[in-house]
Amino acid sequence: MPKPIAGHAVAIATFLSSLLTSPLAIVLVVSLVTGLLMVVLFGYTSDQKAIGIAKDQLKAHLLAVRLYRDQIPVVMGSYGKILRGTGRYLKLAFKPLLYVVIPITLLMVQIDRYLGATPIPVNTPFLLTVHISDQDVSSLASYDLNSVTLDLPSEITMTAPAVHIPEESEVVWRLVGSREGKYRVKIADGGESVEKAICIGGELPRISTVRLRGHFWERMFSSAEPALPENGPIESISINYPDRNIEIAGYGMNWIWLFFILSMAAGFIFKELLGIQI
């Protein structure tokens, strides 16, 4: 193969690879697959015949309201039947919706680890904040925030002295990373040491913006790291990662909104194609 053609082929392959692994492409593919799975799972776990009957009855009662709008008793009776029919439909759809919503929520939590924030750019300052448990600083006058220390790898440096905020029980460092990679910094207080992961550069690393102590449900949705020790004084360690926006026609959009719109649209399309009642 001539060198110019080989060079063009490599360039095209590189472009297609970057396009298919872009956040927009990932959201598009995941949305289509999720829309299909939502419809199939709903159809498999629901009583399709009963849902179809409930929807037909609702349509009939709505039509009666329009046809007999001059006959008040008929209209009022139809409204009552619409309310009962709506309750019957919601009862039929509730359990299948649980089967759909729970796995999709867990999937979104995992995807958000990659698409919710961007890694810290190389040579760009960022903040690392350590929050001390309120129980440990209940007598704040006697608590020394200077005892909280930070140990950094050689690729990350401190660009300013630590800022102590006694009113918030926090210590804040301004840092900068000189080389792309995933690093771990150590925070020590009272003889105990904990770590926090930091992502510098890269395309789609798995990012954890905060590491927490306790707070099980908050950790499930916002942290991708193990819990901090329960008996330690540090309650949280956070980093101000930039939010990731996906560009659509020059407009930046959070991936969750785009995922919601695309997956709902895909769900309605697959619903019609597969003939599933929702």
Q: What do these coordinates show?
A:
The strands form 3 sheets. Strands 1, 3, 4, 5, 8 and 9 form a 6-stranded antiparallel β-sheet that branches. This protein has a 3-stranded antiparallel β-sheet with strand order 2-6-7, with no helix packed on it. The protein has 278 residues and is α+β, with helices and mostly antiparallel strands. The protein starts with a helix and ends with a helix. The chain is elongated. It is built from 6 helices and 11 strands. Residues 8-19 have low confidence and may be disordered. Helix 2 crosses helix 4 (72-115) and helix 3 (48-67) crosses helix 4. The chain has helices at residues 3-20, 23-45, 48-67, 72-115, 216-222, 255-274; strands at residues 126-132, 149-151, 156-158, 163-165, 170-177, 181-189, 192-200, 210-212, 234-239, 246-248, 251-253.
Strand runs, count: 11
Query: What's the SSE pattern?
Result: HHHHEEEEEEEEHEEEH
Determine Rg (CA atoms, Å). Answer: 27 Å
> What percent of residues adopt helix (DSSP H or I)?
40-55%
Number of helices: 6
Mean pLDDT: 86
Question: What structural category do the secondary elements indicate?
Answer: alpha+beta
Percentage of β-strand residues: 15-25%
- Poorly predicted regions are 8-19
End-to-end Cα distance, whole Å, is 55 Å
Oligomer: single chain
Biggest β-sheet: count, sense, barrel? 6 strands, antiparallel
> How would the global form be characterised?
elongated
